[in-house]
Amino acid sequence: MTFEQLEDLFYALKINANPSGFHGFLCGRLSCGAAEMQDLVGASTKWLALAEEQTEPAETALEEFYESSLSNLQDLSFLFQPLLPDDELPLNERLVAIGDWCSNYISGLGDGMGTEFEVSIDGKEALEDIAAIGQISVDLESEDDGERDYTELVEYIRIAVQLIFADLHPELDTDEEPTIH
Question: Is residue 146 included in any domain, yes or no?
């Protein structure tokens, strides 16, 4: 499901939520380990502030979204991408979406793990960086530099999330563990 498809689903269900923020929360929650589909639906219902009449129509589409997101996180070829708006949107709007994605990723991790989890030193650094990115400012000096920085930031987040996921799921045992530069 793309950013626009999730945005359309939210619009159809009259849900006032940011697709990037929701994907960030979900990825954080999924990074915590195995979860029952009903637990994910419950956490999402709470996060999205869904009314009971909104939950049932959203359930199938959200379940497919959960499965797709988990599959992307588990992909050993590291193809995971945070769900962000297309590059046609102004840079400041995309930066706000990155901030929402990152802050909600940390929230999702906290929701799923509580205080009891361990990550490597690189994983800890990645978590701190993602938390800092969640506080991103949209003051831009140059659009050209901003576009390049945006691309690098998205790539960093992508690798950082995969590193954290690998730390929390040693059973996946990859030969090529992502590293943070």
Answer: yes
159 lies in a domain?
Answer: yes
Per-residue b or e along 46-80, where b marks 16 or more CB atoms closer than 10 Å to that residue's CB: ebbebeeebbeebbeebeebbeebbebbeeeebeb
Comparing CA positions, the residue from 16, 20, 11 lying closest to residue 105 is 20
3-class DSSP state of 145: helix
Residue range 68-83, pLDDT digits in tens: 888 888 876 777 899 9
Task: Specify the DSSP element, H or E, that contains 4.
Answer: helix 3-12
**Domains identified in the chain, total number:** 1
CATH of the domain at 34: 1.20.120.740
Q: Which residue type, as a one-letter code, is found at position 146?
A: G
Could you give the angle at which helices 143-168 and 52-74 cross, rounded to 10 degrees? 90
- Tell me the whole-structure pTM to 2 decimals: 0.85
